[in-house]
Design a protein that fits this description.
By secondary structure, the protein is an all-alpha fold. It has two domains: 32 residues; 58 residues, no CATH class. It contains five helices and no strands.
Length: 115
Amino acid sequence: MRLSVWTAGRYLARWGFTPQKPVRRAFEQDPEAVCRWLEEEYPEIRKQAKVEKAEIYWGDEMVNNDVRTNAVGRRRARDREELVANVRGYLRGRQRRPDVVKAYFHEEHVRYAAD
């Protein structure tokens, strides 16, 4: 039996086998600096935000990858206006799904941001 690569990929996806991206860490990352930021600087930021009744927003490649895969990759836009409409529509849908957005922060290396 011969199958095209695309057909094999569709079967694998249907059976729950999908490509996974490994968690990347910067090779120049300084573990001591990260620990200091988590234990000293970030708590101060949270405290200040609480005093000012402010919210902390996080921007990360994970959120960008979600948009790129689902809003841009699934529907090829014919022009810039259609691309903008696709992305806006997708992001509006995500606004109605805070459970999905919270799940972005379940990865171990960003879990501190889920507080």
